[in-house]
Design goal:
single chain; 246 residues; alpha+beta; Alpha-Beta Plaits; 8-stranded antiparallel barrel; 8 strands
Length: 246
């Protein structure tokens, strides 16, 4: 498939990339009580209990020599899949709980996965969820590392596509749009190192609220004419979920 850019504009140049972080990533995502209608995630006792169990397990995992960070997230908004991502053959990203484990290098992932601390965390998450997805990845594109040292609004955006290379080319252009329109200055594109239901998962952070971020996007005509139309033209879909740190 050939990449095609519709409605190009000098306002939205290709993203300025930096060298990607050299880390390894384990992204664990789980559906515990995702919204069944409007995307706003409501409080749920089962999810709260799971988060309370996951936080000390993540803290124990961070004591492992090869582990840089282990961060637990609770979802704020889980929009239903739309556009190309709404096709039934794709795994819907309805994940209201997520954990991101970062290791010093991708080579450290297997020893961490085999360790008792990770196995305990993964089992706890799986037992409480109705649906899970685990991504073993490295970062292949970046606007800058994602700061997890303080609160913020975090994104995990699950991409599906007919052609992975076309989706990567498109991501470079869409990241430029997000940088211009929303002030995005960080992003790590998590590229699978094994089987995955998604061609990649984009992780990013903003210092703003979820509703304000959505308004910045949805009130811009270019969101439809540039972002959505280019995704459809290039047979690429995205399933974003917005989170806070738990």
């Amino acid at each position: 498939m050939q990449f095609e850019l519709l409605n190009p504009s000098p306002k939205y140049p290709r993203a300025r990339l930096v060298d990607p972080p050299p880390y390894g990533y384990l992204h664990l995502a789980a559906a515990v009580a995702p919204p069944g209608g409007p995307p706003l995630v409501r409080a749920d006792p089962a999810r709260s209990a799971l988060l309370d169990r996951l936080k000390p397990l993540a803290a124990a995992l961070r004591t492992q020599p090869a582990v840089r960070r282990a961060t637990v997230y609770r979802a704020l908004m889980v929009p239903p899949p739309g556009g190309y991502a709404a096709q039934t053959r794709f795994h819907p990203a309805r994940f209201d709980v997520a954990v991101l484990v970062e290791t010093e290098t991708p080579d450290d992932l297997d020893p961490v996965i085999d360790g008792e601390a990770y196995q305990s965390l993964a089992a706890t998450l799986t037992e409480a969820a109705t649906d899970t997805h685990v991504l073993r990845a490295r970062c292949t594109r970046s606007l800058g590392d994602v700061d997890k040292s303080r609160p913020g609004l975090f994104l995990f955006n699950h991409f599906v596509a007919e052609d992975r290379d076309v989706a990567l080319e498109l991501w470079d252009h869409l990241a430029g749009w997000y940088a211009r329109v929303t002030g995005l200055d960080n992003s790590t594109l998590l590229d699978p190192m094994g089987p995955s239901d998604y061609v990649f998962v984009n992780h990013a952070r903003w210092d703003t609220g979820a509703l304000r971020l959505l308004l910045r996007q949805l009130t811009r005509p270019s969101f439809r004419s540039y972002v959505l139309q280019n995704m459809l033209a290039n047979r690429t879909g995205a399933m974003p979920v917005l989170y806070r740190m738990a």
